[in-house]
Structure formats: C-alpha cells, structure tokens
Write a structure and sequence with these properties.
single chain; HIT family, subunit A; five-stranded antiparallel sheet; binds adenosine monophosphate; binds zinc ion
C-alpha cells in the first residue's frame, strides 16, 4: 500500500535500522523502544492483520521471528523475551500493517508478562466458554 509507513520502510522510502531480512520479511529496530533491542518483524506483503496474510507467508513470518530472535541473542544476550502483536485497534494496533513485536527481557527491567496486558475475564466461567467452543 503506497501510504503505509511500513510498506515505505520495505521499499526504502523511509529509513530503518535493519536487524534481519529475508525474501518475505523484514525486522528492524522499533523507533520508540520499550526494551533494549525492541524489534518489529513485518511481512513484505501488505496485510493489516493475520487474516489478510496467506498461510504460506504466515509460516514464513514465524521462521523470520525465530531467525530475528537468534540474531538478538547473538548481539544482546537477553535472558528472555516477550513476543506478540497488537491485533486490531482495540488490541492497541496503531500501524495497519501486521508487525510482531519482540521485546528482549533482562533481569531487573521491571517489565511484566503478557498477562499484564489485560485482566478482565468478562464475567463468564471457563466452563461456559468451553460450551460455546464445543458448538462450533
Ligand atoms: P503498534 O502499536 O503495535 O501498531 O506499534 C507500532 C510500532 O511501530 C510502535 O512501537 C512504533 O514505535 C513503531 N514505529 C512506528 N514508526 C516506525 C518507524 N518509522 N521505524 C521504526 N518503528 C516505527
Ligand atoms: Zn503496508
């Protein structure tokens, strides 16, 4: 997409600090890092969310995430990671081009786990939810 900032990064129209690249994906340093070595990995196909990305490219993206983490390991030797993406506006997605955040974690960095993103079970029991899934 011509006006998409991440497509512009892929095309080299906007500069970025590349961490990893392959035929289908690019990983670069987040401009507003929330951790030392905060990286975003993006597919080169413009897709707003996983629903617009083909299964084949989704598979390749997951391998690119692994390769990127391997590279971060070599350079920064973090002690752990949080990896994930903000999916949709309510999930906190601001850039409408799928991007996977990699947050390297270090002891004493005062960060949390993915469980700290939200803690609201919607007032429905696990048993009731399980019944809904059984119907599909
Ligand atoms: P999200 O809220 O998941 O959509 O996150 C978008 C991320 O993209 C944020 O962490 C931004 O700091 C990052 N970002 C936006 N523009 C750039 C850019 N030009 N180069 C690197 N990172 C960027
Ligand atoms: Zn795009």
């Amino acid at each position: 997409m011509s006006e998409c900032i991440f497509c512009k990064i892929i095309k080299g129209e906007i500069a970025s600090y590349k961490v990893y690249e392959d035929e289908n994906n690019l990983a670069f340093l987040d401009i507003n890092p929330h951790a030392k070595g905060h990286v975003v990995v993006i597919p080169k196909d413009h897709a707003e969310t996983i629903f617009e990305l083909s299964d084949e490219k989704m598979e390749k993206l997951s391998i690119a995430i692994k390769r990127t983490i391997e590279k971060i390991n070599l350079v920064l030797q973090p002690e752990g990671y949080n990896v994930g993406w903000n999916h949709g506006k309510i999930g906190g997605q601001t850039v409408p081009h799928l991007h996977v955040h990699i947050f390297p974690r270090y002891s004493g960095d005062q960060g949390g786990s993915v469980h700290s993103i939200v803690n609201n079970n919607g007032g429905i029991s696990v048993e009731q939810l399980a019944k809904k899934f059984e119907k599909i």
